[in-house]
Amino acid sequence: MVLSHFDLGVIESITEFPRGSRRSPKVGIVSQNGKFLLKRRSAARAQPERVRFAHRVQSCLTGVGFPAAKLIPARDGAQLVQLREQVYELFEFVAGQPFRQTTPETYDAGLTLALFHKATEDFAFSATVPPPSGDYHDALGVRTGLSTIGLTLSSHDSFSGDEAELASLIQFLFEVYDRSAETVNGLGFTAWPQRVIHADWHPGNLLFRNQRVVAVLDYDSVRRSRSVVDVGNGALQFSMLAGGDPSAWPDHLDEERLHGFLAGYESLRSLSNEERTSIPHLMAEALIAECVPPITETGSVGQWAGFRILQMVRRKLTWLRTHGERLVTAA
User: Fold this and answer.
1) What residues are paired with 255 via a beta bridge?
2) How many CA atoms lie within 13 A of 194 on its CB side?
3) What distance in Å separates the CA atoms of residue 12 and residue 1, rounded to the nearest whole number?
4) Is 28 a residue whose pLDDT tops 90?
5) CATH superfamily of the domain spanning 3-92
6) What is the pLDDT of residue 330?
7) For the chain, which residues make up each domain, given as ranges?
8) What is the pLDDT, as a whole number, of residue 329?
9) What is the separation of C-alpha 73 from the centre of its chain, rounded to a whole number of angstroms?
10) Are residues 9 and 33 in contact, defined by beta-carbon separation less than 8 angstroms?
11) What pTM value is reported for the model?
């Protein structure tokens, strides 16, 4: 029913595309007119004004040659199809490889984020298509989520047997989050100019070929905020060391990749001293904000029990608090 709204010619195959969030399922399409990716937006990000804003940003990016997957319009010219309260988008398929954790890829991920910010620097915000706002920094939602974990999930299976430690763990996360947010605000965050940010800059949303970024995906979270919010989250995501049971994840980050990401970004856009100083504190906020929503909703993160994830986060935060200033000074 959805594909009937597009002029794709004869459909040759439809294949499940198991990448990204399960809340936004995708299928690959092969037709006589080419290869495409059909995506259903998650309900939380399917509001028409939000979708229209994201499409304006994507059009701005593709207009200057940024590697954003091209939106395919429907026969009536609309850039989305809405059926039964579900919103669908069709994109030109871009072939690429996932992030392989190399330093050259990480450098290019930082450079590409700078290209994104440069391309949207003069983006004209419209009162008729208001941008979403808010992010992981100093967010009420993060604090509410931490409170919910402590108050209502202590009896969840994933915390069974660990109730005594949970309260001190949540208190530690509260203290780190509040202190980090206070430090960033003290550096002048609220006075820094607002512009379009991607707001979900992580390895899963970039495709690579020959260690260069060939496509940036998923614009569902684009919003108005400060560009350093993207830099802090990207620095965390591209330097994270993970894999297997979270209890075995190392405390430290990959410093070479962290430096590479920041060097790539600053090869095009310089950070002020205050912005650079804020990065490890934003990384701490981003790490907490990353795990809170899924634990609040399900008591776990993917297949891993929420308590193990929170223990891992505490270890990494402890390391980051000790080494953060050195990391951005040496980068």
Assistant:
1) none
2) 13
3) 16
4) yes
5) Phosphorylase Kinase; domain 1 (3.30.200.20)
6) 61
7) 3-92, 103-330
8) 81
9) 25
10) yes
11) 0.93
* Whether the predicted pLDDT of 128 surpasses 80: no
Q: Give the span between the Cα atoms of 198 and 223, in whole angstroms.
A: 7
* For helices 306-330 and 273-298, angle between their N-to-C axes, nearest 10 degrees: 170
Query: Structure tokens of 256?
Result: 């070479």
pLDDT at 174: 96
Using pLDDT thresholds of 50, 70 and 90, give the confidence band for residue 114.
very high
- Round to whole Å and give the CA distance between 41 and 39: 6
Which ranges constitute the DSSP H helices of 25-87?
48-63
* 158 confidence band (pLDDT: 50, 70, 90): low
Check: CATH 3.40.50.150 for 103-330?
no
Quick one: 174 exposed, middle or buried, by C-beta within 10 A (0-12, 13-18, 19+)?
middle
Rounded Cα–Cα distance for residues 185 and 181 (Å): 6
Phi/psi of residue 57, nearest 5 degrees? -65, -45
